[in-house]
Structures are given as C-alpha cells and as structure tokens.
Amino acid sequence: MEQEFITNVVRWSWIALAGACIFQCAFFGTIANIAALGSIVLAWGITANVFLRPTMLRSHPLSAFLIVGFTATQFYFPLLFTTLEGKPVVFNLELPYQVFFHSTAALFVLVLSHALYRMTVSQPLSTSTSWLNKVGLFAPPVDLQLWLMGFVGLAATVYVYFISPSVGWEVSGAASDKAIQGLIPFSYAPYFIPFGKLYGNTKDPAKRLVPMLLVFTVLLFVVSIGRNSRGAFMLGFTSVGFTYVLGLLLGVFKTQLFTLKNLAIGALGFFLITGPIADLGTAMVIVRGQRSKISNSELIDLTLQAFSDKQAIRSRRLEDNQEQGDWDERYLDNIFTARFSNLKFNDASLAQAAKISDQDNDMLHYSINYILGALPGPVLTALNVDADKEAVYGVSVGDYLYSEAGGPAEALGGFRTGHFAGTGMAAFGWWYLVFLGVGMFPVYWLFDKLIIKMNRQDLQSMSPPPKIAMRFSLCGMLALTSIFQFLPAESVIITATFLIRGWIQMVLLYVVIYYVTKLIANVLQGSAKHARPVQRPAHVHW
C-alpha cells in the first residue's frame, strides 16, 4: 500500500509537471524559459527517483524530506504556481540562467553530500540506547501535554508581541525573555494530536477534539492579526500538513488520492488560500505601517476593516506589482504561495552579488561574525571574541549584501530575504558550494536523529503494533516546516549556526517543556481522579 501510494504521488506529479511544461512552452516559449523547464525536469527526475522512494523515506526520513523541500521550493513549486497565475517560470528574473544554474549545482552538491552521508553513517536514526532517548526526546506526550504546550506557546506569543514587544526585535536581551520567545512555536502542538501514531501515542483522539481545535484556532487567529504577522498564522499549520503527508508516504495513514472527500477538501483549501486568507494577508500589509503607533486591539480592528475593503486590497496588489527598484521581490501574486516558491530572492541576491567582487572582504568578515554570533555571550567573552551581535543580527544577510552592492544606508534593518547563491558568491566565491556540501553532512545526520528506530522488543510490547518500525519525536514534527525550508537559506553559514546553536537549542527547549508539561499534566490528572466521587455499594434490604 505504501509503495502504491508513493508511486501514485510520483506519477501524478509528473502528469502535473508535463501539463505545466506544455502550457509554458505554448505561451512563453523563450529560450530562457525553456532552459528553466529543462532544469526543473532534471531536478525533479533526480529527486523523485532517489528520494521519493519507500526505502529512502524509511532509512533517512527527515534528511530526504529536506532535499525534497529544496527541489520543491526552487524548481517544482515555482513552475506549478507561475503556471496557475499565467506567468512564465522566469517571470521578472534578471538572471534566469544563473538562477537555475546555481540551483541545479546546489542540488547536485546536496545529492552528493547525502550519498556520502549514507555510505559513511551506518545507523542514521536514533536507537533505544542513544542519549536522546534517555533524556526523553522520544517519550510520547499525552494529549493533555500537547494542549499545555499549545497554551504555553500562545502565552509566550502574547507576552513577546503584546506585553513586551521589544523582545521580538531586540537582538540581545534578557536570557529569560529570549527563552520565552523560543516557546512560541509550541503554539501549534495541539494540532498534532490526530497524528499520535507517528510519535508513539496509540490512543484515539477524544471526540471533542475538533470543536476544541476550532476554538483554539480562533485564539491563534486573533493573536496573529494582533501581531500583524502573516507567517505566524500560516507556517505553523504547514508543519501539520507536512506531518500528514509524511505519514501517508510512510504508510502510517491510508487514503486514496482521488476521492470525492479529498477533492472537496482540496477545493476548499485552494479557495481559502487564494481567497480569504490571501486577502487577510494583504490587509495585514496595508495596516503594517500603523502597528508601532496604535494598540494591538486597534490594529486588529484596522486589519478587519482593511479585509472588508476589497477595493483597497486590489489597489495594494496593483501597487505591489509595480517596479520596486534595485531590490525587486515581485514573482508570485499570492503572498502565501510566494513564501514557498519565490525565485526572486535568488535572482535579487545574484544581481547584487554581480555588482561586487567575488569573495568580498566585508561580506566574508560579516559571515564569520554571523557564525561567531551564534555562540552564547559567556563563550564569546571567555574566548575574548567581539562578534558585535547587535550589528550582525540587527540586519539580514540580504540587507548587508544590498548595502555592500551600493544600496542606501537605510537598507540596513529592512530585513530583505537573501539567498545562499548570491550571498555565497559574494562572501566565498564558488567555494560556497563546497561549504554547502560539507556543512549539510552533519545537518542531515542531526535531523535524522530526531527519529528513533524501534527494535523487535519495543514493537512486541506495543498494542496495537505500529505500522512502521520507527517513531518521530514531537520535536522533529514541530520543526517540519523549518526542515522543508532549511534550504533555501540566506547563506550557507546557516549550516554552521545550526550546528553551533540551532539544533541544540531546539532539542533542549523541547525536553524542558516536555518535562514541565508532564509534571503539570500528572498533577491535573491526579487532582481529577481524587475529585471523582467514590461510588458506595447500595444498601441491601432483606
């Protein structure tokens, strides 16, 4: 069944790709567009034949998922979504040949690095004797714990963006504030309850789960509008969607692709993303200039007013489609699909990099300081290193590249989204591909370690027995969107910062909140048991 589902997914992906290519060739038959289509077909062919296979997904699930994510965001999705919008895949690209050449070269490097990883590491998944298992990373949380995690994350969001908004934009600050900020992704934990089979919870969800999730969604929705963040409301839910997709690919969940129910759900999802949700995202952009001047409640009210003004939304989209100067990010009209397939970040970065010499000293120095800045402050002090975190993390890598290429001084702090191809060429020249390949080797390994391989004894002790001999950590499931979008990144230095701090921080934070919520859940469940009235036996009358 698993093999059949993956085969169907790959088959229909090729049918969709072929249809999109025919459309592109018929209406946008330029040499640049056809060359881009060739790169897309090559990239998807490699990915589908190597990584979308049952054996690969079972042996190296998350590292394979990462490469599928890179190919999807840099090749497949841009073709699909530009076709749906009636645009060429090279729409608004200044350097289309370079964009697809760098992406194709990066894919070859990723595939080669993964091949070396598979040959070198004989046991990529965690085992029952690993320290990750001993600290409780793979202990299945009960449903109450996930609800507690969700409310902790929601409370952290309210604190960071409503009560103490400076925490959200300060580079440095109190360690306690930064720890609270790190709890925000747990807001989406309750949505993983239906997928308990993946993280070891074999109990069926409660019947009241759906209405409870609907109420919780409304709370998240209001908070997201109040903090004026489109991504806050959308990106967490994509992890839930990716979890379901992985469950289908691994054979944990069963479904037929084309049923009336699935088609209805797909049609509803398409309508929401292209209609109301897209309008809401545009409404947030319209009122964004007011968010530092008014209260959060007023911001929510203004956003809803803008959402109801469809003429203002249309005018804003027309304005966004106008030429935007030296740093132009126009590619897709839909603001949500653009988050997963905007090739302009690559194009703009390469265009700026072309204005400065390869291996620019300032870009190289900035990149080194960016890596050092990932180290905790006490470590930097002990090493007598001044990484100047405020200057480094107060701007994005894209900002710094744009400034180095002659952008205005006010460009710094705009947090433009760079791409590792352009920033890599500016800082390291073609050596960036070497750094990418070497750096991704341990990244693959660390992501796969978020899954434990169960032995025969573990499988026999579980009732009912699981459908796969592995168990995800909820920590890994919460990070699925980050894994899918790990590449493209702003720079290849992300591999270094992830190894120095990112992965350790992610695991440590999860283990802490797991044990805290476990303690609270035990207290609450114990109190509930004591509160139940004891049934006394009825008196018998003779």
Q: Can you give a write-up of this model?
A:
It contains 27 helices and two strands. The longest helix is centred in the last third of the chain and has 38 residues, at 494-531. The protein is mostly helical and 542 residues long. Helix content is 65%, strand content 1%. The radius of gyration is 24 Å and the shape is globular. The chain has helices at 2-27, 31-50, 54-59, 61-84, 96-120, 131-134, 143-163, 166-169, 175-181, 196-199, 209-226, 230-249, 260-274, 276-286, 296-308, 310-320, 344-353, 361-372, 377-383, 389-393, 397-404, 420-428, 431-448, 456-461, 474-478, 480-484, 494-531; strands at 451-453, 470-472. α5 packs across α23 and α23 runs parallel beside α27 (494-531).
Topology of this structure?
Blueprint lengths: L1 H26 L3 H20 L3 H6 L1 H24 L11 H25 L10 H4 L8 H21 L2 H4 L5 H7 L14 H4 L9 H18 L3 H20 L10 H15 L1 H11 L9 H13 L1 H11 L23 H10 L7 H12 L4 H7 L5 H5 L3 H8 L15 H9 L2 H18 L2 E3 L2 H6 L8 E3 L1 H5 L1 H5 L9 H38 L11
Antiparallel strand pairs: 1-2
Briefly say what this structure is.
The chain is mainly alpha-helical and 542 residues long. The chain contains 27 helices and 2 strands. Residues 538-542 have low confidence and may be disordered.
